[in-house]
Amino acid sequence: MQKIQTPFYYYDLDLLDQTLSKMVRARGDSSFHVHYALKANAEAKILAKMKATGLGVDCVSGGEVRYALEQGFGADQIVYAGVGKTDWELELAISSEVHGINCESIEELVVIAEVANKLQKSANVYLRLNPNIDAKTHPNITTGTLRNKFGIPANELWLALEELAKYPCLVFAGLHFHIGSQIEDLSPFVRLCTEVNVLQKALRDKGYNPANVNVGGGLGIDYKKPDANPIADFDTYFENYRRYLNIYDNQQVHFELGRSLVGQVGYLFSEVLYIKKTKELDFAIIDAGMSELMRPALYGARHVIQNVSSVLPDHEYEVVGPICESTDTFGKHVLPTTQRGDLLQIRSVGAYGSVLSTQYNMRGENQPMFSDEENAQQFFSALHAEV
Ligand code: LLP
């Protein structure tokens, strides 16, 4: 097989197609709208697939809103969240007339109104509520408890609505929630439905009939078994919402899915530079590190690693990157006996992989993060034909 420069990300676009069609089938109902969480992976080819599937986009910065518009998404397909929106970001969102601005504090509401008035525009505002639900995922990616900075505490809903009513330029589009990411046990989503039902009932009792409800994203993927379970459990995920969420008067339900759409699609290929043995451990030192894939260092995340060059007997290695940080490790892995020059594939890196990469240690020189498409495609096909 021809040698290819590493490290690089490869995206299996066929798997992406299969994932999207499975998701679309499971979503079914035409009142369910999925917005792709652009933060997970902003590769143009991936985004083009999302667009072709008719998905909207979930953005968390002015940069993302601008990029989504440039990539041809309609403003009416864009939802925009974030606890720290700046004035220029709000100006962009309001002047482009995005579908919804997910407002995260009463203080922000005042600024949205100021900006909308200045532009002589109206703004569609969702109130992002913090329902204080523990998503039972990693604490660093939990967002829906009162220890997290996100959203307006649910008991301040009425205060927020009072404030919103002061500004004729603001339209109350609905409630927004997002309780966390990589949620594998789906029961927190059922709890979320119960909370949303209580809040929506209370709204109706007071005469509010918002046209939408946005329940965020968070559906997890199987990092342990990417080959056995390449596609997330969209069936149960949407079925839960159909069964447990009360939807009033043709309300439209919005979802913001990131990881579950792209996570399993990504591979990070890396070459083994050295095998270094100490009394304690055998290290496999590879040419990708936390600068290319931050998740292990940031969240202690574990990704399956496969040696695609060796069929020798298994051996345990601590697989580490070249960065000058002790947290630059992918953890212990049992691999076929590995040597300098072997090629490893790190799995399930399509979401929050390349987007979180940095130039730390002045990395990036002579390292194509995305090797040129044709080369990579040939390489990947050859590799998987051989294995
Ligand atoms: N909506 C909002 C408001 C969000 O903050 C997020 C993710 C999503 C939707 C999409 O969530 P998903 O469906 O992808 O779980 N870097 C971390 C994950 C951070 C998630 C940030 N927010 C990781 O690598 O695990």
From TrEMBL:
Domain Orn/DAP/Arg decarboxylase 2 C-terminal: 9-350
Keywords (A to Z) from UniProt: Amino-acid biosynthesis, Decarboxylase, Lyase, Lysine biosynthesis, Pyridoxal phosphate
Domain Orn/DAP/Arg decarboxylase 2 N-terminal span(s) in chain numbering: 31-262
A GO MF term: diaminopimelate decarboxylase activity
Reactions the enzyme catalyzes: meso-2,6-diaminopimelate + H(+) = L-lysine + CO2
Classification via InterPro entries: Ala_racemase/Decarboxylase_C (IPR009006), DAP_deCOOHase_LysA (IPR002986), De-COase2_C (IPR022643), De-COase2_N (IPR022644), De-COase2_pyr-phos_BS (IPR022653), Orn/DAP/Arg_de-COase (IPR000183), PLP-binding_barrel (IPR029066)
Keyword ATP-binding attributed: no
First-level EC class: lyase
Cofactor(s), names only, from the UniProt record: pyridoxal 5'-phosphate
Single biological process term from Gene Ontology: lysine biosynthetic process via diaminopimelate
The keyword Amino-acid biosynthesis is annotated on this UniProt entry: yes
Record pathway: Amino-acid biosynthesis; L-lysine biosynthesis via DAP pathway; L-lysine from DL-2,6-diaminopimelate: step 1/1
Alphabetical list of NCBIfam families matching this protein: lysA
The family this protein is said to belong to: Belongs to the Orn/Lys/Arg decarboxylase class-II family.
Protein name, UniProt field: Diaminopimelate decarboxylase
Gene source species: Reichenbachiella agariperforans
Top-level taxonomy: Bacteria, Pseudomonadati, Bacteroidota, Cytophagia, Cytophagales
